[in-house]
Amino acid sequence: MEIVIAYTSDTHGEFRDEKFVKGLKTLIDEHKPVFILDGGDAVGKGKFAGLHNPELSTMVELGYDAMAIGNNEFGETPFYMKRKVGQKFPFLLAANLRIKRIMAFLLGNRSQLAPQSKVGYESPIPFDAYEYWPAHPYVICKKNGISLTVIGLMPNNIFKPLDNIVRFFTAPFRLISPLPVIQSLQEVLPSIREKSDAIIVIGHVSQEENSQIMGSDIDFNLLLGAHKHIMKPAPENGTKRPFIQCFIDRDNTQNEDKPNVSMAIIKLQISDDPKLLDYHAYNVLTGEDITPHT
After folding, report:
1. Minimal CA–CA distance to 38: which of 28, 29, 48, 50?
2. 17-41, pLDDT tens digit by residue?
3. Structure pTM?
4. Interval 225-267: pLDDT, tens
5. b/e burial code for range 8-33 (CB count within 10 A of at least 16 → b)
6. Domain assignment of residue 219, yes or no
């Protein structure tokens, strides 16, 4: 069984650009991915402070299935964020977030809510209670007879350095907090392995944490990197548990505000002998193949 996945990340507001969106549509129409994912930081800094977030609405229109929460999405007010944009993009993911007991108490022990499905998707958090949560830990996307589980990881350094003093004195009352990525994955994976044809981890985390994931014995099929704006050399076809990170062509970018953001097109074999079959990265604006090779 084979699947084609399209992936973007760290676009920082580019979804507001008509030419960028047109380029995405062209690539999607050409390669016909079954699943479309994003690694976070889709919005520019501070964009969630407003009431209108065209980035997320545009992503829904393009057919995106899920998105890891980046530091730009999270900011410092996750529950404000959810009230304003949660309904526009329902599959924001961060498995390394945990609510504290005080939040469970305030929500009437809703932390014990049972799994619930809706057409084409399944999550451990009931969709009608989603407004109470900063993110889903994972979502199982079901298309074309394939169940693909996507797990998101958000950065641990989500709060600004100047906020450290405030964090120290308010820690006992902080409603949510990030956990180590390995611990988060170990807690989530046992409950979803048998439900999934393939498992993808999206890590909007540090390169050190990505290395920890790749060096672990955790059972997943693909790690999609984000957060660090670099291009990783393409893994060879046939690679098991490949790590792909290719979004901004810094060697060909003179203007930081208008980077050459790419869309990765990934073909995976997910049955019998799971492995990478093919991978290319394309400049969204020009359609040029900019796959980084060693």
Report:
1. 28
2. 899 999 999 999 999 999 999 998 8
3. 0.84
4. 998 887 788 999 999 999 999 766 544 444 444 456 789 999 9
5. bbbbbbbbebeebbebbeebbeebeb
6. yes
Name the one residue in this structure whose structure tokens are 């929500």: 107
| End-to-end alpha carbon distance in the chain | 29
Within-domain flag for 46? yes
Give the CATH number of the domain where residue 225 resides. Answer: 3.60.21.10
54 lies in which domain range?
2-283
Kindly state the tokens that stand for 89: 């993009």
Sole residue written with tokens 């350095």: 161
DSSP state of 271: S
Give the span between the Cα atoms of 115 and 110, in whole angstroms.
Answer: 12
* Sign for the pseudo-dihedral over CA of 124, 128, 13, 76: negative
Number of domains in the chain: 1
Radius of gyration for the alpha carbons in the chain, expressed in angstroms and rounded: 18
Alpha-carbon gap, residue 186 to 191, rounded angstroms: 10
Query: Token pair 């407004």 is at which residue?
Result: 131
246 has which bridge partners?
231
> How many residues are given for the chain?
294
With H, G, I as helix, E, B as strand and everything else as coil, classify residue 252.
helix
Whether 221 is covered by a domain: the verdict is: yes
* Residue 156 and residue 96 in contact, taking contact as beta carbons nearer than 8 Å: yes
Single-letter code of the amino acid located at 23: G
Amino acid at 4: V
Structural domain contains residue 293 = no
The answer to whether residues 35 and 120 touch, using CB atoms and an 8 Å cutoff, is no
CA 19 to mean position of chain CA atoms: 23
